[in-house]
Every structure is written in C-alpha cells, then in structure tokens.
Amino acid sequence: MTSLAAPSVAVVVPCYGPQAPVDRLLAEIPGSLRPGVIVVDDASPTPIAVPDDICLIRHPTNRGYGGAQKTGYAEALARGAERVILLHGDAQYPTGPTLALAEALDDHDAALGSRFLVGGGRSVPLWRRAGNRLLTRLANLRFGTDMSELHTGARAYRAEVLRALPLHRFSDDYLFDHQVLVALLAAGAAIAERPVTATYDGEVQSISFPRAVRYGLGCLWTIARGR
C-alpha cells in the first residue's frame, strides 16, 4: 500500500469561515500528512489563518464550494500527489475516518464516506435524508450500481482519476460533487464506501432549502445525461 504521507497524499480543505472548526480539524491531522494539506479559503468574511506548515490559498472573491475544490485539486495535482482527500473545513465529517478513506484507494479509483452505513443515516436531517436516498437510488438505477450514498462530502480520489475528469467544466457550486461521481460511474470506476458520521451544528455550512431544490434538480439532469 502507498504510504499515507505527504507528498503521496494531499488533503484539500475548502472553507468559508468560521476559524474555529478549521483550527480543530488541522490539529487532528497527523504530522506525516501536514505537508500535504492545502487549505482553500473561499473569500471568507474574516480571512482564515493557518499554521506556517500548512499551505493556504485564498480566493480574492467567493467562487463557491466547487470552485474551492477545483483550486485545491489543481494544487494537489501540480505537487504530484498520488491520492487526494477532501476534508470539509467546517469539520462536518470526522477527520480520522475521512483521512482513512485514502487507504481504500489501494484497489479502488475513489472512496466515499457513507452516513447511511452508520445507523441508516439517522444523523442526517429527515428532509435531506429523503432527498439523498431518492437521488442515490435513481443514480444506482441509471448506472447499475448499489451505492448507499452518493451525496457525501467525505471522499478521496486517485490522482489519475481527477486528471482524467473535465473538472473545469463542472459547476462551481454544490453540484460539482455529484458531477464528479456521475462522471466516474459512467466510466465504470471502482468506488469504495466506508462508514462515517456527520455533525450538524451552527458551524456547519448547511445548504438552504431553495438551493437544495436547485441542487436536486441539477442532480437529476446530471444523472439523465450520464455525465
């Protein structure tokens, strides 16, 4: 197995304030991985600060959740990382289990942390859970897969998978995540799932209901197109 240490592993941390959860999750990252951490501050109202041993890229204007990922992935690939982990800057997903997703890339193209493998997803608010299950089921039917969740933010990718995707064509908003996965499913990529939990509190950057509706409609269109 590839050693889970920088520079073979990059950890991309998109964030849009506040500072406290970023501090917590950075403190939980093992020293061997810290040189590979890339924090992307998407023009937070109060600029994010990081320790000197962490790479910080600050957007001058807000580009969105997908836009922040694009910046982080571009930097990770430019550094020659072999595996890339996405870790939310609001600490919604637990640091340790999310980092451990990279281990599943020994024999998979991507790895997802599924909230539905832990207590049936009961940690997810009800309306989000229902929409998540419906959209995941439709994608499974479309691509002949059996995934438990395709709308998690805890994920890891092989670098060559990211290089092969037209990331610049994907949304700068939340739809970016699903566009990536649909492209992988359409290509027959091997995707692993591992159980994770999630936190929903005042510090989590939660999508509003109207934006969630737009996201759901965008997911349907993406699934129908198959890319």
Main features:
15% strand; 7-stranded mixed beta sheet; 36% helix; 7 helices; 227 residues; single chain; Spore Coat Polysaccharide Biosynthesis Protein SpsA, Chain A
**Main sheet attributes: strand count, strand direction, barrel closure:** 7 strands, mixed
Give the name of the CATH superfamily. Spore Coat Polysaccharide Biosynthesis Protein SpsA, Chain A
Secondary structure: number of strands? 7
Mean pLDDT: 93
Which residues sit in consecutive blocks of at least 5 with pLDDT less than 50?
Answer: none
CATH topology: Spore Coat Polysaccharide Biosynthesis Protein SpsA, Chain A
Structural class: alpha/beta
Helix and strand arrangement:
Blueprint: E1 9-15, H1 19-28, E2 37-41, E3 55-58, H2 65-78, E4 83-86, H3 95-99, E5 110-114, H4 126-143, E6 155-158, H5 159-164, H6 175-186, E7 191-195, H7 209-225
Helix pairs in contact: 4-7, 6-7
Question: Overview of this structure, please?
Answer:
This protein has 227 residues and is an alpha/beta fold. It has a single domain (9-225), classed as Spore Coat Polysaccharide Biosynthesis Protein SpsA, Chain A (Alpha-Beta Complex). 36% of the residues lie in helices and 15% in strands. The chain has seven helices and seven strands. A seven-stranded mixed β-sheet has the order 3-2-1-4-6-5-7. The relative contact order is 0.17.
